[in-house]
Amino acid sequence: MNNHNTLLDIQNLSVEFRTDDGVVKAVNDMSLQIERGKTLGLVGETGAGKTTTALSILRLIPDPPGVITGGSITLDGEDILAASKHQLEKMRGSLVSMIFQDPMTSLNPVLPVGEQIAEVYILHERINKQEAAKKAGEMLELVGIPASRGRDYPHQFSGGMKQRVVIAMALACNPKLLIADEPTTALDVTIQAQVLKLMKELKSKYDMSMLMITHDLGIVAEVCDEVSVMYAGRVVEHGTLEDIYEHTAHPYTEGLFHSIPNIDARAHRLIPIPGLMPDPTDLPPGCPFAPRCSYAVEECSKALPTRIQLSDTHSVSCILRQKEE
């Protein structure tokens, strides 16, 4: 279903990690699309397979033990899984960039931050050091850091400032797709809001698409156009913001909403989702969410639910919805 407007098209992706303790099925037959200029939120608990999906797009899965066992990834018409090492090096940074979870570990502690950003330009744009340093300074200014601070080292910056440096580095070559993996996890709430605002502004300035990986539905509401909810390596519900927030269809999505604090209703108790995510080395035969689901019927533990289109924009994988059709 790839059309010209689709920038990223993942179809039936499966990734597993072969370890001494068994085969970890991290991503299972997972499909998602991102349109040009749109932001997709990929939501789910830790261990759902969100980061593995992102690393697959960049072909950065540690191999061994990680293996992409099936499916296809097309980015701007390029077949990512068939690309050579040289093609991938050209794509990373210029076609697709990633902001990793922890800015403290994404930066090289022994190089000034300006040099680290300049490196991106030298690699992709084949320009000399002086030009690259000038561009790096401009990029720092763009994310609200004085160019003169390019001479400073990562340890001289606060957490929020480091995250801005990481964003500057990711956007240096104006990628068509920006992958942000929990970009505000290590930051306090006020800085988090500033970083999200900055990312939204830069996204529209550069007219790029974004994959926002998070477990925080508040962040999704703030920056995303569409949402894919992921559980045990599969997308269980996908839709626009309105579909997911106003017409929640999957019991797992409902559970995620119930576990958000509500400031307006202080008396309202949080309802946590019982149990834990299934062991990815030993997934249950039916719906992976069935053991934790308060709506589960006998059928749920026997067969995997198929994906049902509730509307043009809204789809869900749930046996209960199949019965309603």
Task: Summarize the structure in words.
The protein has 325 residues and is of the alpha/beta class. 33% of the residues lie in helices and 24% in strands. It has an eight-stranded mixed sheet with strand order 6-7-8-3-9-10-12-11, with helices on both faces. Strands 2-1-4-5 form a four-stranded antiparallel sheet, covered by helices on one side. A hairpin with a 2-residue loop joins β4 and β5. α6 runs parallel beside α7. It is globular. The model has no long low-confidence stretch (mean pLDDT 92).
**SS-based structural class?**
alpha/beta
What percentage of residues falls in helices of 4 or more residues? 25-40%
Assembly classification: single chain
Largest sheet features: 8 strands, mixed
Residue share in β-strands: 15-25%
Low-confidence runs of at least 5 consecutive residues:
none
Q: Write down the Rg.
A: 21 Å
Count of separate DSSP helical elements: 11
Mean pLDDT: 92
Number of strands: 12
Distance separating the two termini: 23 Å
Strands of the biggest beta sheet: in what spatial order?
6-7-8-3-9-10-12-11
Give the helices and strands as they follow along the chain.
EEEHEEHEHHHHEHEHEEHHEEH
Principal-axis shape equals globular
